[in-house]
Amino acid sequence: MLEADGLRRHFGGVKAVDGVSFTVAEKEIVGVIGPNGSGKSTLMSLLMGNNKVDSGSVGFAGQDVTRTPPHRRVHLGMARTFQETRLFTSIGATANVTLAATETSRGADVDRLAADCLAFVGLHGVGDAAVADLTHLQQRLLMIALALASRPKLVLLDEPAVGTAGDELSHMIEVIRRIPTERDCSVLLIDHNMRLVMDVCQRLVVLDFGQVIACGAPAEVRDDPRVVEAYFGTESA
Ligand SMILES: Nc1ncnc2c1ncn2[C@@H]1O[C@H](COP(=O)(O)OP(=O)(O)O)[C@@H](O)[C@H]1O
Ligand SMILES: [Mg+2]
Q1: What is the residue with the minimal CA distance to atom 24 of ligand 1?
Q2: Does 16 contact ligand 1 (Cβ within 6 A)?
Q3: Which residues are CB-neighbours of 205 under 8 A, at least 6 positions away?
Q4: What's the start-to-end Cα distance of the chain, in Å?
């Protein structure tokens, strides 16, 4: 579904993404983890086209999309959420999703699609509440509903669970887990919360200083000495 090959993006002397390759299969959930500043968000922007690659390529559904602009990648079936909450605050919650559906899913019954995406993340009761009146978790879920409104085949989630814990985190985990089976969509989950990625992902890619230092099944990766040093070393520092 997704093929990242040798992706590189430097900012001056900072090697934000420095030769990253990995794949995401159909309906697979792959996690990208790594300490703060390891290049996760930059990688996502390269995959989605919000940022230009210095070198390397992005393949999606068998097509080279390296130079395809973001809105065209959306039409091909890619969607993303952002690490920071990005919603239209001047319109209500449901209107946010309807607007996203209108822009990205031409020909669809947008009201129905919006209601379906809201229900999927557990926000059916939210109606046209103002975005500002939603809880933090509801805002994070609304961003996922927005991404799903384009009926993607791959969704990239940048720290969807940031700021959640306990039951809220469990709800987020449950929603992400259902995406492949119920939305027929692969997931690339970027996070820095080890519990989330261990619970949800079939495979993990670990970044440190813009490079892949480990890749594989969650249990293998967790026990990899380089990961323990790079990831947990930094976490506890
Ligand atoms: N637009 C930018 N200009 C300059 N440096 C950037 C830019 N975006 C990211 N960086 C730098 O690239 C590195 C990786 O950042 P980022 O991708 O946000 O990491 P992560 O998401 O893993 O925390 C950091 O050192 C960050 O300061
Ligand atoms: Mg980030």
Answers
A1: 37
A2: yes
A3: 20, 22, 30, 31, 32, 33, 212, 214, 215
A4: 37
The CB of 49 under 6 Å from ligand 1? The reply is: no
Residue from 163, 177, 186 nearest 79 by CA:
186
What pLDDT shows up at residue 237?
39
pLDDT at 226 over 50: yes
pLDDT tens-digit profile of 203-223?
Answer: 999 999 999 999 999 999 988
Q: Retrieve residue 100's tokens.
A: 């996203």
Model confidence at 232, in pLDDT bands (50, 70, 90)? Answer: low
What's the confidence (pLDDT) of residue 189? 97
3-state secondary structure (DSSP) of residue 51: coil
Q: For ligand 1, say whether the CB of 91 is within 6 Å of any of its atoms.
A: no
The phi, psi pair for 233, rounded to 5°, reads -55, -45
Nearest ligand 1 atom to the CA of 36 is 23
- Ligand 1 centroid to 40 CA: how many Å? 8
Structure tokens at 75: 């039409």
